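Write out the 3D structure for:
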Amino acid sequence: MNLDVVVRSGSVATATSTVITDIGISDGRIAAFGSGLDAPEVIEAVGMTVVPGAVDVHTHFGNEVGGVPTLDDYESGSRAAALGGVTSFINFAFQVPGQTLVAAVVDERNKALAESHLDFGLHVVVTDPSTVDLTRELPELVELGVTSLKVFMAGAGLGLSRDHLITVLGAAAEAGLLVNVHAEDGPLVDHLTRRLLANGQRAPKYLPLARPPEAEALAISLVAGYAKLLGCPVYIVHVSCRAALEAIRQARLGGAEVYVETRPAYLYLNSDRYEVEGSRANEYVCWPPLRQPDDQAALWDGIRSGEIQTYATDHATWGSDQKAEVSTGFHDVAPGMSSIQTSIGLLYAEGVSRNRLSLSRFVELTATNPAKLFGLWPRKGSLALGSDADLVILDPKRTVRIAATQMASKTDFDPFDGWRMTGWPILSMVRGKVIMKDGRMIDEHRRGTFQLRGRAQPL
């Protein structure tokens, strides 16, 4: 067999096993496993951990939130992802007023094709179901390779009414689409926010009071109840707290098909960040907000047990000045922070290296489960014969100091600036081409392709 590349003698990890072996690559796909494989290009991986490239299914490159565009576009966002061990991603196409869902997807796809270093897919965000024919459009989206939607239950211009939520879930069930849900109870959040602002409580430290765990849990219970009755699987994005996980447990016991994602911010940061002096606290504003240490402990338990199936970043960036200059209150601060370049290293260092997480669970969370749920398996998220040769080599002994000045993101701050971590990605490969080595981009070609996704595979 003629091979193009061999990754030699690494500890190759999948969701089910770890074995020391060579990986042979031909025409961008995995073609052989074994010992003594040879090729014109050999990458030595002795003592290293080799895993499937991460599939980040929750990114915001070139999106607008509240009318404010994120700093990272597809070029800078996918560059940061590649440098951090992410090899494919799914971004969002937001429906704008008067626009069809198909048009939103086509516009976003064309933007990404011109800029992305990585293969990508799209979710479409339904903001106004009343202006589209869901019965006709959702099957058209499936034909375009888009098999997932997103709905918001809170947020000005984003949150759907209950009637609209039911309409979307019912149509998605008929078309066989998975629905991503931003689960916070909008009316409760709005009421609590108005009350806090009226009392002059505008600082970021009051954000957790405006968007409490109860708002998340209530929204999950509601949407899961609808989803069960309508026969629609739902995927709850960025779960942040113990109360949300308890609501998910109850929904599953009641027969709802509910999948769960959490994000780096909630595993490694807590609400103490809102107590820092001056405008720095604004940098940590996100929706839902950072929670208590007890909530972090619950999330770690959830990812170890399998209750939480995926780990994604919700990477959404703005500059420190943009965040700091907001003086009207926490409610007007753009929500989100940078994390895609550090997410995989952090989970390996904080999880696997510290024996808080098995290597198999690490692979499930970052690659296998997201690929299965979002119709990319086994082409992505897998180290198997015939799969795309998307892989990452991690050095278990590599110690790094995270520095905001070394990040590829266009934002000028990083929530993990100064952290020292042991166990870090040192090489990324996409379809058999090395694109990152030792923290530097090797291949500058914007070779990302749009992925035609199938329907979700139940976990």
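The chain is about 30% helix and 25% strand.
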